[in-house]
Amino acid sequence: MQKTNFSKVNDQFNNLLFGFLSSSWKTKSINMISILIGYFLFANFVTKFISEGRNELVMVPIIILIIEIIVRIRPSSKSNFFSLWSIIDKVRIGSTYAIILEAFKLGS
């Protein structure tokens, strides 16, 4: 097949949507474990702060600051720090999911 602009865009789109299928089992399992660890840690973390009711005004801005630092600092995929950053980012995604799920539980 010829490499036209449309085929390049189509390949990039397929890689974006289905790129996780071509990754190794090691990468998939590390990503899934990181997400579950983030969910577990923050589900327990949020429950602890709900039961205690102290230090919320200090801890919430610190958590938001840490999450924003993780989002803003993104190393290039060629650096050695990228794999560690990827794990930390997946923990952030799991923690965000835990916080949102806890908010839905409290709202119902």
Structure explained in plain terms:
By secondary structure, the protein is mostly helical. It has one domain. It is 80% helix and 0% strand. The protein contains 4 helices and no strands. It has helices at residues 5-18, 25-52, 56-72, 81-107. α2 (25-52) crosses α4 (81-107). The model has no long low-confidence stretch (mean pLDDT 84).
Residue fraction in strands:
under 5%
Instruction: Extract low-pLDDT stretches.
Output: none
Biggest sheet architecture: none
The H/E string reads HHHH
Radius of gyration: 18 Å
User: Please, what is the average pLDDT?
Assistant: 84
The number of helical segments is: 4
Cα distance spanning the termini = 54 Å
User: Which class best fits the helix and strand makeup?
Assistant: mainly alpha
Q: Give the tally of structural domains.
A: 1
Principal-axes geometry comes out as elongated
Q: Classify the helix fraction into a percent range.
A: over 70%
Number of strands: 0
Please give the structural blueprint.
Elements: H1 5-18, H2 25-52, H3 56-72, H4 81-107
